[in-house]
Design goal:
MetI-like fold, 16 helices
Length: about 300
């Protein structure tokens, strides 16, 4: 007698934890948020320590193990650090003169040079552009002694001229960024302007510059940020305290053999980072847009 067997049902595979698209997206979102929070903590930790130190007394600063939260916040540290013999009003004025002057010179010169490399035709143009980029591989300290001798012979030491005049001759990195942006602009505007009788100077001033405001904004912000915190240039060429920028003025709180007033140094340092932070948040949209569009086309 024939026997009938029940059909075997295939075993259903067990679904993994990340088998569905929704689970994968959720995992990626959690991982990304965790990494962002971790990076934020790493970045803000020095800032939190500076703020905590700026509210301590000299005894609390020297205490070990360190104290995170001061017993009585010393808000008087801020006016003590910024007024009196520290002369931070003069340091701030000198810093703004140096930063804004360098920003104007670099933005103007780099915009003009980048226009020539991107839109004009000339024999050997590409070789000259490679030569300009090659200067980025040359450390600035290599040319320090020849430059110092030249500026000394001109009588420019202890003035702002050695720091401001070279900025009107461009920067290789900023020229590269603006050249990349100029190459993305359509040539129809230039051809129409040439037909109407405009010269290349008028095309650059009336057409190219208005169209390149995002890239110019990014270049201006980067130039301002670099020169606002520049320490090496003023240290070499500036001698008198009346010409010190804030980067050199902060050194007044440091004693050569210990006894540094770290609570006042941290208070002054926190105040000095306020202007670039405000500038970045005001021009953040133009900065990001300029960085993005500067690398679209090579």
């Amino acid at each position: 007698m024939a026997t009938t067997t029940a059909p075997r049902t295939a075993a259903t595979p067990r679904r993994g934890l990340l088998s569905s698209k929704k689970s994968q997206d959720r995992f990626i979102q959690i991982l990304s948020t965790t990494l962002c929070v971790l990076g934020l903590v790493i970045v803000l930790f020095p800032l939190a320590w500076m703020f905590s130190t700026s509210l301590k007394t000299r005894a609390e600063v020297a205490r070990f193990p360190p104290v995170w939260i001061p017993n009585i916040p010393q808000w008087q540290n801020y006016p003590d650090a910024l007024t009196g013999q520290n002369r931070f009003d003069i340091y701030f004025k000198n810093t703004m003169i140096y930063s804004l002057g360098s920003m104007f010179g670099e933005t103007l010169s780099c915009a003009l040079v980048a226009y020539g490399f991107a839109r004009l035709r000339a024999p050997g143009k590409n070789a000259l552009f490679v030569l300009v980029l090659a200067t980025m591989m040359l450390p600035s300290w290599v040319t320090l002694i020849p430059q110092y001798i030249i500026f000394s012979r001109l009588g420019w030491i202890d003035t702002w001229l050695p720091l401001l005049v070279p900025k009107f001759f461009g920067s290789a990195y900023l020229i590269f960024l603006l050249r990349q942006f100029y190459k993305t602009l359509p040539k129809d505007y230039e051809e129409a302007a040439l037909i109407d009788g405009a010269n290349y100077w008028g095309i650059w001033w009336r057409i190219i510059l208005p169209l390149s405001l995002p890239a110019l904004g990014a270049v201006a912000i980067m130039s301002f940020m670099f020169h606002y915190q520049d320490f090496g240039g003023p240290l070499i060429y500036i001698n008198s305290q009346n010409n010190y920028p804030m980067s050199l003025g902060l050194q007044q709180f440091r004693a050569p053999f210990g006894g540094t007033a770290f609570h006042l140094l941290m208070a002054a340092s926190l105040v000095t980072i306020i202007p670039p932070v405000i500038l970045y948040f005001i021009a953040q949209r133009y900065f990001i847009q300029g960085i993005v569009v500067s690398g679209v086309k090579g």
